[in-house]
Amino acid sequence: MPLGLVALAIGGFGIGLTEFVIMGLLPEVAADFGVSSSAAGWLISGYALAVVVGALVLTVATTRLPRKPVLLGLLLLFIAGNLLSAVAPTYQMMLAGRIVAALCHGAFFGIGAVLAAGLVAPQRKAAAVAMMFTGLTAANVLGVPLGTLLGQAAGWRSTFWAITAVGVVAWIGILTLVPAQGPNASSVRRELSAFKSAQVWLSIIVTVLGFGGMFGAFTYIAYTLTDVSGFSSGAVPWLLVIVGVGLFIGNVLGGRAADRGVDRTLLAVLAGLVVVLAGFALTASNQAATVVWLLLMGAFGFATVPGLQTRVMQYAAGAPTLASGANIAAFNLGNALGAWAGGLTISAGFGYASPLWSGAAITVAGLAVMGGAAALARARSSSGSSSLSPASSSSPSPVSSLSS
Fold this sequence. Notes:
The protein has helices spanning 3-20, 22-33, 37-40, 42-61, 67-87, 91-117, 125-154, 156-177, 188-193, 198-219, 221-228, 236-260, 262-283, 287-315, 320-347, 354-382. By secondary structure, it is an all-alpha fold.
């Protein structure tokens, strides 16, 4: 395993920690700044919106620049944003720090995925992408519980100081361990040409729906665990560690499976996620079953990530950077969609298990789109055209047009 992948994973760990640890520290942050819980919630939603903007704008702005220096610059933005959060004297300054840190999120994973894939043999690209995203899963398994405990013991600012330090370590690691991959010969026009591919758009839609279904259920999982399953609120953080373990397992196995067949893997995993969410909804009142479902929800939910990211890069052919960043933005749009749908079902009076049902429904829609995309790819392949056939890892498919 190239050590450069470890450096990229550390960067992913820091970014994942920045995104999720605030959820456990929100009451302390709100009390410190004297704002309401709803106002403090903007530290989460504002971050997510900034991720979408940064994933597209920064990727476009840096298209012609070499990828490694761009990644180092993005990490400097990440370090600056978390440093600002750590020392922020006001809520407004804290929000500004969150937005600055978030701007690098999508572009980092989008560009980092391209760099990671370039560090390994063609048949190992999905596994390399999964390795980079392992940092994100580790942030959920270990980083969020430990970061929350640190913030509660030494003050919430200490957590952001620690995240800043992680950013510095990642920056040094990428500087020294990730080899330069030559000049980026792409251009904005060439990167935009990737979106002429029907399969790029279909892959992005599957990302929104497939990941949105899982995250919609996950957003309200604390309420499900306490109000439906009957666990105490003190047990929730440790139950979420189980989800994190599932995320880690799913990410690794999903990457390996995607290297053997992206479309086949995504169809199987999305179908499995539907079953898991529906089964969870039906048996959420059973604590033993709930523990099992939490593990499986994390595993199937995150097993889609390497395949979805790799699929977009394959069909974007020689211009994968912007498409890769757009897919990271799609993950965050899926988060928003799933949370919105789950909130609607709760507001409608269907109870705290209802986000599991809405998540299953959204995932069914993603499965349907994925089935159509795979069928279209097979049809194009059997007709002798490679423009929409699944790209082999060693020979990416050329970009197709929407009219083809």
